Amino acid sequence: MEAVVKNLGSVLELLAVSQTDAVSEWDAQTVDRAFQWAAYCEHVYTRFHSNSSIRPVLEDCLRLTNERLSEALPGHRSLSLADLSQCRHRLFIGLLRNPVAPYSVIKSLFHKFLLFGDDAKQGSETDLDLAGLIGCKSACKLLGSFPLEASGSVAVTQVQGLMLLQRIHALQTRPGNDSYTKALLDAVLQDSGELDYFSKVITASLLMEDSSGEHAAAQNLLLDWLHGDPGLFHSMCQCSSPELCARLSQQWPKFRLLYWDVLKKWASSFEYDVNGGVWVQQCNSAVSFETLVARFKSLWISSLKEETKKELLVLKEEEGGFDVPGLSVWTDLLIQL
Questions:
Q1: Distance between CA 21 and CA 189 in Å, rounded?
Q2: Cα separation of 266 and 56, whole Å?
Q3: Which region holds residue 295: left if phi is over 0, alpha if psi is between -120 and 50, else beta?
Q4: Phi, psi at residue 51, to the nearest 5°?
Q5: Cα separation of 81 and 57, whole Å?
Q6: What is the pTM of this model?
């Protein structure tokens, strides 16, 4: 039992260190060992928490270790015996929120620990209040070096989006980290291997509501990152439904301006096929006229109707203000709407 008590104190120290600048020197192997010790701690809790003779010994160890850590680390949050039941999850959250955690550590979290498999406890409360987070095995695949599962449920995608925001927010707590955060997003995009699904994760992040306003800075950084890569944003719009793009346009003026640029670029590339009586594009990968109409219609039936109508009328006038079909794509779009 002496060895168990000693190990228990060491794991508490490990959890405390995981929230400090010392994590900057960690690598994937360190993360592996840390989670092995955290799993050991959970095993100790499961085996002894109801043992009336051993439980007081463990609680004394926790009390003494918490006191020592509080003196050494200002702001240390003391852990109770009950907290040990979710030791791996607390380690995961601590590393995820640590702004100095290297990319290799964050990638290891998502790649190796699918929220700890069937050991996960449904409905547990966490420091981030991520309802159902532990129950979503796919939630950690966001930074994995393998394709994300396109079949993931909406709930899983929302969890991934929230985790992405939390990671960005953690990095933003340190001044001057914006460029590093954008580099991290570039790495995430490269590692995700599937633009379609990652676009859904970004969309979920941007649609996330937060009454405290904590997510706003992270969401604005995401939009700035998208603005810096027109090709990526173009692909994201193609991967996202007209309805989702309309919702994002209503919620984020930055997104609305970017989306309008994409729609105008698509529309301007159409040519009228006189023989077929239809608008066509030469590029096979481009959107069809019907798809373009659907996207404008989603804006038309939203709170952006008047703004959309005004913009289309201006574009129509710039091309001559024709009312005859087949002369201006803007005229024909207005006719369809």
A1: 26
A2: 69
A3: alpha
A4: -85, 115
A5: 11
A6: 0.62
Q: Where do the H-state alpha helices sit in the chain?
A: 2-17, 28-48, 55-72, 87-97, 103-112, 154-172, 178-192, 195-207, 216-227, 230-239, 242-251, 253-268, 289-300, 305-318, 329-336
Which residue, 102, 66, 70, 107, is CA-closest to 83? 66
Question: What is the average pLDDT across 192-206?
Answer: 76
Nearest to residue 244, comparing CAs of 215, 282, 203, 276? 203
Rounded to the nearest angstrom, the gap between the alpha carbon of residue 103 and the centroid of all alpha carbons in its chain is: 15
CB 183 within 8 A of CB 229: no
The structure tokens listed for 301 are 């039936």
Per-residue pLDDT tens for 266-313?
Answer: 888 888 888 888 888 876 656 888 999 999 999 999 999 999 999 989
Q: DSSP states of 265-310 as a string?
A: HHHHT-EEETTTTEEE-S-TTSPPHHHHHHHHHHHHTSTTHHHHHH
